[in-house]
Structures are given as structure tokens and as C-alpha cells.
Design goal:
With 311 residues, the protein is an alpha/beta fold. 37% of the residues lie in helices and 20% in strands. A nine-stranded mixed sheet has the order 5-12-11-10-9-8-1-6-7. A hairpin with a 2-residue loop joins β10 and β11. The radius of gyration is 19 Å and the shape is globular. The two termini are 32 Å apart.
């Protein structure tokens, strides 16, 4: 896929109807030969829209107006390129806990959670947040995570978590203003509710920091998993992470995680982690597949705002 095609696809599959500013911007970049030429000087994994737009936002550049964005990107490309080479899209959306909750609540309690690609670890606190599935509210914490769920009876309680740890190539620290500013820059322009959610979830993590280990999802996972308490159910989980891992690494990770004790919860796009016999997606836009131990259970949206259960 060319860079132009990737930006056009991002516009139509990921942000259409969700972020008008990024839809306009992605389509404009897909036709902007000058910016595309600059992007093609980067390694393929560093050309993605979320990374470019996040870096420009973090640097204080304009993302609402495509013409202003073009001028800023061309004039400031050395600074943009330098940040794109050292940063990664580490969107740490606590809202994704809403689609994980039905699986986590149904497993034998208590849980030892280990997140692969944990970023700042905000998805390691499903027991501390509150949830609203239609009229049903679960839990009593903050933030309150809204999810439109169909095809299932929502859980009635949050899980009991006795250990939480994360693995990331570059773990972020919610007590570091620079790291939090990067997480904020990755949130799409119109999503004020997600910015408020980030602040509330960061306060939860800062009050009781998780164990975050800098490491590789294959090389360093067994040693971290071995640190989980033996009297808890180990749950290794990840959401919208494996697209950043080359295919051989994904395959090695799947082989490894299947052999670990406990359970494996995946929430990834179907082209990233394929399954046989999936039902048709419910509507347009990018959907992930929520799966437990390799068995697909539900379609989910990327920020946890919606799920359609079929398992």
C-alpha cells in the first residue's frame, strides 16, 4: 500500500464520522505530493497518519485546516521528522476497558493483568473505572466509560484485580508532563470527552502506579508473566497493538502467549490477527475483533465506544 493509499484509507475507514478534521486532513495529505514525498523519506512504520498528526499537534501546529497544515509541515519538516523517528503511536485509551470488561468479569477471580503494549498503563485499571452500557451502570469510579453494547447482557460487577503489569518498548509515565502531553496530542481534535477521560484515568494510575517494564513482547513476556501471583488468574491482553509489529513477530507472539498459563485476550483488527468464519461487520468503519484464547467473541470500535457480541 502506498503512503497516499494509507492516508485515504485512514480517512474512509478510521476517522469518517468520528473526526471530521482528521478525515479532511487525511484526504488532503493523500493528494499532497510534497508532503507525501517528505513522508516517504521515513521508514514505512513511521509514515502513519496518527503519528504525523499527533506530532504536529504536539509541536503546536495546525491540524484543522489542510492548507495551513501543509504550509506548517513543509516549513517545519526537520522538527516533525525528528519527532516521528523517535516517537510511536501509543494511544492509551481507557475507554477500551469497556469492551474488555465482559470477558474479564467472567474469568475466575481474582485476576493478574499483564498488558502487552501498555503505553502508560491506563487500561490496567478496569476495576477502578465505572461503565455505562445503555441504561446499565457498572462500578463506581471515575472516569465513567460509555459503551453501546448489543448482543450481550453486560456484566454486573467489575473484576477483582490483585496484580497489574505492562510491557512496552517505551513505557510512558503519567507523572511526567511531557509523556502526558504526548498522550493528549494523540487524541483526535474534536474529542474533548477523551481528553477529560485521559486526565481522570491518569489520576487513577498516578495514585497507584502499575509495574511497567521496558521490553519486547516476545523476548521479555515470559519473565514478566512469571512474576504474577500464583493464586490469581493470569490474563495477558492487548488492544490495537499488533499492527505495529512485523508479521514474524506477531506469529512468534501468538505461539508464545498460547503456551503461557492463564488466558489471552486480544482486541485487534481482523487483518492484523485473522480468524476464520467471522460474521459481517456491523456497519462501516474500522472494527477490531475481541477474542478470548483465540476464539473471536465480538466486534468492537477502536476507542471502546461500541461492541457487537457474536460469541
Amino acid at each position: 500500500m502506498t503512503t497516499a493509499e494509507a492516508y485515504a484509507r485512514f480517512a474512509t475507514r478510521e476517522v469518517r464520522g468520528v473526526s471530521p478534521a482528521y478525515e479532511r486532513l487525511s484526504l488532503a495529505v493523500s493528494r499532497d505530493h510534497e508532503v507525501l514525498t517528505l513522508l516517504d523519506g521515513l521508514p514505512p512504520a513511521k509514515r502513519q497518519p496518527n503519528l504525523l498528526f499527533g506530532v504536529v499537534r504536539w509541536l503546536g501546529g495546525p491540524v484543522e485546516d489542510p492548507a495551513a497544515f501543509h504550509d506548517y509541515a513543509v516549513a517545519n519538516w526537520p522538527a516533525i521528522e525528528a519527532q516521528m523517528r523517535v516517537r510511536a503511536t501509543q494511544t492509551n485509551e481507557a475507554g477500551r476497558c469497556a469492551v474488555l470488561l465482559p470477558v474479564l468479569a467472567a474469568l475466575p477471580q481474582p485476576l493478574a493483568l499483564l498488558e502487552v503494549g501498555a503505553s502508560a498503563g491506563l487500561c490496567l485499571y478496569p476495576d477502578r473505572y465505572a461503565y455505562r452500557y445503555g441504561e446499565q451502570r457498572v462500578g463506581s469510579g471515575e472516569p465513567v466509560l460509555e459503551c453501546a453494547a448489543s448482543g450481550l447482557v453486560p456484566p454486573t460487577r467489575v473484576p477483582q484485580v490483585v496484580w497489574r503489569a505492562g510491557l512496552d518498548l517505551n513505557p510512558l509515565d503519567v507523572t511526567d508532563p511531557d509523556d502526558v502531553s504526548w498522550l493528549d496530542a494523540l487524541i483526535w481534535p474534536e474529542h474533548a470527552h477523551r481528553r477529560a477521560r485521559l486526565r481522570a484515568a491518569a489520576a487513577v494510575a498516578a495514585a497507584d502506579p502499575p509495574l511497567l517494564i521496558r521490553g519486547d513482547l516476545v523476548d521479555d513476556l515470559p519473565a514478566l508473566a512469571a512474576r504474577a501471583p500464583a493464586d490469581a488468574t493470569l490474563v495477558v491482553f492487548h488492544t490495537s497493538v499488533l499492527y505495529q509489529v512485523p508479521v514474524p513477530g506477531r506469529e512468534a507472539f501468538v505461539r508464545l502467549v498460547r503456551d503461557l498459563p492463564g488466558h489471552w485476550v486480544a482486541n485487534e483488527a481482523p487483518e492484523v490477527l485473522p480468524y476464520d468464519g467471522l460474521p459481517t461487520t456491523p456497519g462501516e468503519g474500522l472494527h477490531n475483533v475481541l477474542a478470548l484464547d483465540g476464539t473471536p467473541l465480538a466486534w468492537t470500535r477502536g476507542h471502546g465506544q461500541e461492541m457487537t457480541w457474536f460469541g
